[in-house]
């Protein structure tokens, strides 16, 4: 597996995912793994979260740096808009339809 493929895998993406997908996956996973969200009284978990966040940061940076044309094109053509974080939604699946009599 190449380094590039490994970086996609760290973010839970297929190789060739768009920059938008890379950024969204990073935000979702960073939200989950951020050490400030985890119990402070568990040093092992805090250490694991810090390691995971470093891995996520490295993956995102490597994938972003391998897309110079896409990055520069998107920055030139679109005005900067601040992004707000939207946590993943979790919904229960719809119940199956009632059987017909």
Describe this structure in words.
This protein has helices at 3-10, 19-33, 43-65, 68-77. The chain has 101 residues and is an all-alpha fold. The chain has a domain at 3-72: Helix Hairpins (Orthogonal Bundle). Helix 1 (3-10) packs across helix 3 and helix 2 runs antiparallel to helix 3 (43-65). It is extended, with a radius of gyration of 18 Å. The termini are far apart. Residues 70-75 have low confidence and may be disordered.
Write the layout of secondary structure elements.
Blueprint: H1 3-10, H2 19-33, H3 43-65, H4 68-77
Helix pairs in contact: 1-3, 2-3
Low-confidence segments: 70-75
CATH architecture descriptor name of the domain at 3-72: Orthogonal Bundle
Specify the CATH homologous superfamily of the domain at 3-72.
Answer: DnaJ domain
Count of distinct strands: 0
Short description:
The protein has helices at residues 3-10, 19-33, 43-65, 68-77.
Features:
101 residues; Helix Hairpins; mainly alpha
